[in-house]
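Progress narrative, work stream C.
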Amino acid sequence: MTYRREAIACVCNIAGDLLAGIFSSDAEVIAAAADYLRAYAIDCLFTSIFFCYTGYYNGIGQTRFVMLQGIGGAFGVRVPVSYLISRTANATLFHIGLATPLSSIVQLLLCLGFMVHLKRKKPEQTVQ
């Protein structure tokens, strides 16, 4: 079994400044990018899980749910939460970046809830 998501999370969390240093030599930019990558590291743990669910749902023909949970996660959680956090005093890119794992958690909960919904339906009704 591979542990890519954990590896990416660790690299982003521990060596975010090295990754950011590839793209900029400005110390402030590197520090801010490393700060954001720490929030992104959290998201790596959740995204890989709900991507498996969305792949499954696409495979069984539940594409409408996949589209709606993706749009809901982006425009219902990620964008408004990022905006609201950016308006708070002393908001950093880490704080703003936390909107991404929050969105992933909401999307994962939607996927789990949809799985429960599908299990309650008759098997022949799950494929469109």
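Work stream C, second folded protein:
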Amino acid sequence: MASLNVGNLGEYLREQRRTAQLSLRQLAEAAGVSNPYLSQIERGLRKPSAEVLQQVAKALRISAETLYVRAGILDEKERDELETRAVILADPSINERQKQVLLQIYDSFRKENAAEQAAEQAERQAEQQATQQAEQAQPTDA
């Protein structure tokens, strides 16, 4: 889990609020939080809960996962996975069984790719160690 970066979150929220052409008071009302509390979040003085971030994201019509990443609650890879899953689950053109099958396939691809990446990384480390050992074994000419 990433460390909390509330200042960055506050700046981002302020930017999103201004882009949405909402006053601080309007956003606070739409998100169901107090005006002073939202102001403190924007100024980096408060650490909002995931629930508050979700309410603010809904009011701004942006991804809650993006706010979670900005707040350090979620890392980038987790967000991408959650968003992919959310899109599959929200698709009205496929039925529940099809959604579950897609998610199973998605999970199997992720596991397969993770295993391949781990094997490649292990191979690179072994090659580096072999190179280092070979360099250390060579006599130096003085």
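Confidence is low (pLDDT under 50) at residues 1-5. No further action is required on this item.
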